[in-house]
Amino acid sequence: MKTVNRRSAFGIGDIIGGLSGAAVALPQSMGLGIVLFSVMGFDASTGALAGLIGATILLLISGGVGATVGMISAPNGPMTMMLVGVMSTLSAEGASSGAMLLNLSAILMLVGIFQILFALLGGARLIKYIPYPVVAGLVTGVGVLMVKSQITLLAKDWNGSLYPDSFESAFPSIIALLTMLAMYLTPKLTARRIPAAVGAFVSGLLFFYGALGYLPFEVNEKWVVGTIPSIVNMHFDFPAKELFSLSPKLVVLTALALTILGMTDCLVTSLVADSRTGRQHDSRKEMVAQGAAELVIGFLGALGGWGTKGATLVCIEAGGRRWAPVVAGLFFMALMLFAGEVGRYLPLSVLAGIVAMVGVGMIDLNILTWARHKRTRLDAITAIGVIIIIVSVNLVVAVGVGVLFSILLFISMQSKNPIIHRRIDAREHRSISKRPVEEERCLEKYGEDIVMYELKGNLFFATADKLRTEIGGQLRQDRILILHFRRVRYVDMSAMIVLLQIGEDARNRGCELLFCHLHKGLGFGKKVKKAFRHIDSKHTFNHRVFADSDTAFEYAENRLLQKHGYKNSERAKAKTIAENDLCIDMASEQIEEISAMAIVREVSAGERLFERGDYGDSLYMLLEGNIEIRLYVNKREYKRLAKYGPGTFFGEISFIEPGPRTATAFVLEKCVLAEIGGKELKKFEERREYKTLIEILNTIAIRLSEELRRSADDIRRLEEW
């Protein structure tokens, strides 16, 4: 026996929700169809039918796929107003109704193709990044156009005057205003139990026919929709050959603008539906379904659309879920098949009032609030600019200008963001390489000659030039400059050219430039020099590149020490116990005591002096070779904690407090060590020779204090990271 998936099961809630959503979408779909097709030269009944066909196809295809639970799709303001603008332009150029209908079909079919392609290529995710001020401006501008279009529609009987010349000619406008008032008051008076559009529709009909009972004039045919043509009598002959006579620029640009606007608005509606149903929509599937619906609508020459928030919320609140949109679609289809005569009793003024009120509701007054605050003033300018272009030019241009302005605004804001996260020199920060005291003093004295710039954000043409300007004054003779890229998310070609120019500047001024953390996410990989050579063959990239900042700092420290007389060969020479940091400030008799108790041993390269967790109580003075202290994550991966060379000592923690070692000591090259066991401390106590013991503990205490200070600085830097 098959189990029933309750998420997809059909129930009474789908019937009630579907019919409720259809009741809200019905007047809007018919009204918007009338608006568009009136501009194209068709009568109101044809426009109403086009709106109903569009709603039916959208609901059956999108609802049938079920990518967004409970979403009601139908013709809406943004698409209609953009198409009205295009058709008005064609009408002004003398295009016939047939030519405009063909343009409409081509645009909608191309919108469908674009939506499907965008969805399959992952474009649905990119649409979410369109700046909100642009969207707010578009929605508000469309709202203004919707109100304007209804005023124009109602003013046809005013004989070209700004005001009606008689009460009879003013009657439709009065009904429209009363309908708008009813739409405003319905949610307040009914505690939102009755949808605003439904209440306005019923109230508008009562106002219209109730007033006619007391007025001295009868219904004018121009005041009603008229008999809606039956869908069975439609002629589906798409003139494909005539498509080549259309303007590709007009069709393609309009389709692209509609695609961007439609996908944005539809995905927002899907999120609204998700918030009420607790489900998660499939954006790719939804866009493919919407695109397929637009293709069919375009082929039939009807009015397209996408998800509508108001109808969707009403549907979901009434209990509609998976199959509610399909129920709404079937309702629209039944209306077209069997109730065409209803159009003779539907006042245009009532539909106009509903459409105008929807337009008023789309106006975002928050834009005025943005304008009053400095932080959001540029966002307000963007939105207002989009609105002005929509009203004075058209929606297609507004979409393009709005997105372009937002791109420029984004670039401007990015260029103002600091590209340098932090500046560190060798007096503040050192590598993990532990050096003899005299070398540490040299680094402390001349540490300002090693400077590391930690960069962050996106390095592109604007910010890269800013970086060149900011560090230009630091490219001085004998200075070593490190550019740290770990926090950089993106480097474009222009930035790479600027980095090559910075390298040339450094070379000409005698400054050594180093790079670190040029990670794969920036597109470099292992062959960094080759990547730069492909960008510009005239400039040679011959700078050293390090995997991490520590190795870069270690190299820079070695270079600085070399400049001040500490040659690599000298630093690598074997040291005696007397030259070790532990004993360097002690008296000769104390050094002799320590030498007598120390056990000198050799360890081969590649061995481990001790492992993390091993018991230890010894202090090691490194006389020859190099040892690295590592914290292993697994057998191969590890974090370097410290590196010791001749003349240094380590193991002081276990020496003072015997116990498990905290890390592993890995021998990089053959080492000679002098080991002092923890038991020797007790011998000093037994002999009451405290002077040498105090000197040892004092030296260790100073070392630990320095390490604590450095650890505190590292924690502070991590907090800033």
Short description:
It contains 26 helices and 16 strands. By secondary structure, it is α/β, with parallel strands linked by helices.
Give an overview in words.
With 721 residues, the protein is an alpha/beta fold. The chain folds into three domains: 12-231 and 248-407, no CATH class; 420-568, STAS domain (Transcription Regulator spoIIAA, 2-Layer Sandwich); 573-720, Jelly Rolls. Helices cover 57% and strands 13% of the residues. The strands form four sheets. Strands 4, 9, 10, 12, 13, 14 and 16 form a seven-stranded mixed beta sheet that branches. It is elongated.
Number of helices: 26
Shape: elongated
Number of folding domains? 3
Rg, rounded, reads 39 Å
Largest sheet: 7 strands, mixed
Mean pLDDT: 83
Describe the secondary structure blueprint for this structure.
Elements: H1 12-39, H2 44-65, E1 73-74, H3 77-92, H4 97-120, H5 123-127, H6 132-154, H7 167-189, H8 196-212, H9 248-277, H10 283-300, E2 306-307, H11 309-317, H12 324-338, H13 348-362, H14 366-372, H15 377-392, H16 395-416, E3 420-425, E4 433-434, H17 437-446, E5 450-459, H18 461-472, E6 480-491, H19 493-508, E7 512-516, H20 528-535, E8 544-546, H21 549-563, H22 568-572, H23 588-597, E9 599-603, E10 608-610, E11 615-616, E12 618-632, E13 638-644, E14 649-650, H24 652-656, E15 659-660, E16 664-677, H25 679-687, H26 690-720
Helix pairs in contact: 1-2, 1-3, 1-8, 1-11, 1-12, 1-13, 2-10, 2-12, 3-4, 3-6, 3-9, 4-9, 4-10, 6-13, 6-15, 6-16, 7-8, 7-13, 8-13, 9-11, 9-16, 14-15, 15-16, 18-19
